[in-house]
TrEMBL record:
<protein>
    <recommendedName>
        <fullName>Methylenetetrahydrofolate reductase</fullName>
        <ecNumber>1.5.1.54</ecNumber>
    </recommendedName>
</protein>
<keyword id="KW-0285">Flavoprotein</keyword>
<keyword id="KW-0486">Methionine biosynthesis</keyword>
<dbReference type="GO" id="GO:0106312">
    <property type="term" value="F:methylenetetrahydrofolate reductase (NADH) activity"/>
</dbReference>
<comment type="pathway">
    <text>Amino-acid biosynthesis; L-methionine biosynthesis via de novo pathway.</text>
</comment>
<keyword id="KW-0028">Amino-acid biosynthesis</keyword>
<dbReference type="InterPro" id="IPR029041">
    <property type="entry name" value="FAD-linked_oxidoreductase-like"/>
</dbReference>
<keyword id="KW-0274">FAD</keyword>
<dbReference type="InterPro" id="IPR003171">
    <property type="entry name" value="Mehydrof_redctse-like"/>
</dbReference>
<comment type="pathway">
    <text>One-carbon metabolism; tetrahydrofolate interconversion.</text>
</comment>
<dbReference type="GO" id="GO:0071949">
    <property type="term" value="F:FAD binding"/>
</dbReference>
<keyword id="KW-0560">Oxidoreductase</keyword>
<comment type="similarity">
    <text>Belongs to the methylenetetrahydrofolate reductase family.</text>
</comment>
<dbReference type="InterPro" id="IPR004620">
    <property type="entry name" value="MTHF_reductase_bac"/>
</dbReference>
<dbReference type="GO" id="GO:0005829">
    <property type="term" value="C:cytosol"/>
</dbReference>
<dbReference type="GO" id="GO:0009086">
    <property type="term" value="P:methionine biosynthetic process"/>
</dbReference>
<keyword id="KW-0520">NAD</keyword>
Length: 296
């Protein structure tokens, strides 16, 4: 039996998020993943900044090594938490000097934990929009920001939430990457609201590739992302079966991306958790192959 020909559609753009490794073993896994994902020709790869700025040095080291040792364009995440403007500005200048030209500007979560009231650090940037403005005064960085298809849990209304996204754009953001979600309709409704509010920068879906369903459920409840009940059923009884969970995760991600692509989405940001396999298989199912395998 032959496969039906794939519809001739433009290759979607992809990007990958990594976190800075804590140990030598994790470092090896990260670099193995980076080298396996590089041939997919991502638009950029981003490196997260630990809660409370805890990974400042590790994030910096990882981003610098990407600049030096790969042909990839790194984006460094940066938050406002627990640092003065002067301290953050120094980090931004260090990035500029290291050849980094893209920052994902974020407010961050309260150091006491998600759910506590966020208090801007004395003398610090108050939120992501404020930080984006500060970054632009230091260098002409490309700036991406976070956005929330199910509304940020601290935003009282949609108008308030989208107004904050508009402020980030006014201060220099040119791309918004979403919090993870699993229902394509959640994304489409959000995109419609954003367009109605006059938001015209690309809104790139953040696709979560977390096969640890218990961990994912915990994370989702903290950050206000919903998990559809059909996912509970899919993962039921798989706690001890890592391989099957991974295959289920790849399928969920591929189906979500396919639905999003049908709805006109042509850019995807993958939360890789530093593992190449799930991101690679999702890309394949989306029709994204290593560049050298594609017709010239
Ligand atoms: P903002 O958009 O600045 O604000 C979030 C909410 O806070 C607003 O919607 C509003 O309700 C409230 N708020 C903001 N400013 C004010 C104000 N002046 N007055 C009253 N209320 C206000 N976290 C990390 O620690 N490290 C990371 O690397 C990281 N990467 C992320 C990547 C993406 C793509 C996303 C979506 C999130 C990421 N986060 C990261 C999590 C992020 O820090 C949290 O979601 C945080 O709660 C909000 O950050 P923000 O940049 O969206 O904040």
């Amino acid at each position: 039996m032959t496969q039906p020909p794939r519809e001739a559609v433009a290759r979607p753009k992809v990007s990958f998020e990594f976190f800075p490794p804590k140990s030598e073993e994790m470092e090896e896994r990260l670099w193995d993943s980076i080298s396996r994902l590089e041939p997919m020709d991502p638009a950029f790869v981003s490196v997260t900044y630990g809660a409370g700025g805890s990974t400042r040095d590790r994030t910096h080291r990882t981003v610098r090594r990407i600049v030096k040792e790969t042909g990839l364009k790194p984006a460094a995440h940066l938050t406002c938490v627990c640092a003065t403007k002067d301290e953050i500005n120094e980090v931004i200048r260090d990035y500029w000097d290291a050849g980094v030209r893209h920052i994902v500007a974020l407010r961050g979560d309260p150091p006491e934990g998600i759910g506590e009231t966020y208090q801007p650090y004395p003398g610090g940037y108050i939120n992501a929009a404020d930080l984006a403005g500060g970054i632009k005064t230091i260098g002409d960085f490309e700036i991406s920001v976070g956005c929330y298809p199910e509304k940020h849990p601290e935003s009282p209304t949609w108008d308030y939430d989208l107004d904050l996204l508009k402020q980030k754009i006014d201060n220099g953001a040119t791309r918004a990457i979403t919090q993870f979600f699993f229902d394509p309709e959640v994304f489409f409704r959000y995109r419609e609201r954003a367009v109605k509010a006059g938001i015209d920068i690309p809104i790139v879906p953040g696709i979560m590739l977390q096969p640890n369903f218990k961990g994912l459920t915990r994370m989702a409840s903290m950050c206000g992302a919903s998990i559809p009940s059909w996912m509970d059923e899919l993962y039921e009884g798989l706690d001890e079966d890592v391989k099957t969970r991974e295959m289920v995760t790849a399928n969920i991600a591929a189906n979500l991306c396919t639905e999003l692509a049908r709805g006109g989405v042509d850019q995807f940001h993958f939360y890789t958790l530093n593992r190449a396999e799930l991101a690679l298989s999702t890309c394949r199912l989306l029709g994204v192959k290593p560049r050298e395998m594609e017709p010239a």
